[in-house]
Design a protein that fits this description.
This protein is of the alpha/beta class. The protein has 17 helices and 9 strands. The strands form 3 sheets. A 5-stranded mixed β-sheet has the order 5-6-7-8-9, sandwiched between helices. Helix 9 packs across helix 11 and helix 14 (314-334) crosses helix 15 (352-369).
Length: 480
Amino acid sequence: MRFSEQHKVKRSDDADWFDVNVEMDSPLYVDPFLVFDDGDTHWTAAHDEIIDFFDATLGLLAKAQGHRSSMHWVKAERFVLFPEPKEFALGLSMGHPEGAGIGPDLAREMCAGLEFFRERGRGSDDRLLAMMAVLVPGLGVDRISDMVCNIVKDRFIAYTQTVCQDLSVPMQEYAIPNATWTANGCRWQSGKEMLPASPVFKGGVILTPQRFLKDIPRVTPDGFWNWAEHNENETLRFELNYDLAESLSRREKARLGRELAHRAVDLLERYVDNATQDVAAYDVDGDPKGLVRWEEAGRAIAKASTAPVVPTSQREFEQWLTDLAQTFKFAVEDNGLWRALWNDGNTRHRPENIAQVIARSSWIEHCRASDIDITREADCGRGPVDFKFTRGWQVRGLIEVKHISSSQFVHGAGTQLPIYLKGENAKFGIYLCIGYSECDFREERLALVRDACNSISQAGETRIVPMFVDARPKASASRG
């Protein structure tokens, strides 16, 4: 459900606020460079506020003089603790709005990274956040976005209040963690603000201008390595003694990128300058990657399908769940809704998490009609399963959605899903496999999954049914 639907308002074509999904994170993030470059008077001071925040943190580290047991260092670590700003409902993982944020371990790594730059004479300029994203493991764009949203949260709150007043959207007072901060003493302060209500947690929703939103990171450790390998070949090979002939995975490139950042700060600065030139926001209105309108795509699938008969027993429930998965398969293969799983030019399919949320959106109305609870990414003790379906305490089942091209395709059927079923005390699961190419549908690849599912089912404790969805752009016979 989008903000405009929740409050029954129409977003005008010239409006700049992002019509956020208030029930699930949208896979976008606030890019600090887009905020830095904005000319609107409301946002011009945000740049200085972010710089001032890290100036204050660096000041504490300077007083600590590298002693991590110092009260100044400990205070710096506490200062850079950031709860996830759930009010924004943004995040590339597309999970529930309540996430992890920046906890003590990552705060410790951040302070170590800031100290590294401080010792080398680097202050809190525009490049600092981007360089930290390369240097500090785990500090990806989601966490950078969380920091920016926390540091200038008061500006986003004021922006939201203006939008709501213009649209006559009701607001009420909520307690806001990390509402403001002060450089004097380096303290965070909670506060109370008027905001529109969230439908999924006890708190308010904060809106963002969509011109600040990005979909992919511009600066990453592996991106730094790739750039350096392409642009600084001689430096890497001879001055820094790297073997460029070795074939590397993305994870290995990320490790080498962080290592390179420690050895060549000047090189890192040149990379950041290059990567952050002409940063453009994600085209929210055009939505070329399907990152925004996935809910609408799922509804179209639901509208084109017939709801399964309401189950009363475990046996009927298993058939109901099979029929439910079939509604997605039928809509994609026979009703032309495979287009929702591809970009506009049908040149690249959308990522797995987009397929998962489209599937959820297509199923949720049928679940409501049958009084069945659907939980996305339920924690079963050994990691998250895509979807858990329950009716009361006894009737339950799982659906795992996987791209056939995934490196974890066979592992998911033979290992992951059985563990999830055991963790949820469920006796039935569906392994919903989506293919996009001829290579995906090679019989030997599908047979591996069929054999794994049959072997587990024959053991008698649980039953797993594989289902293959043909999402290739051209019409072809269904496979399953």
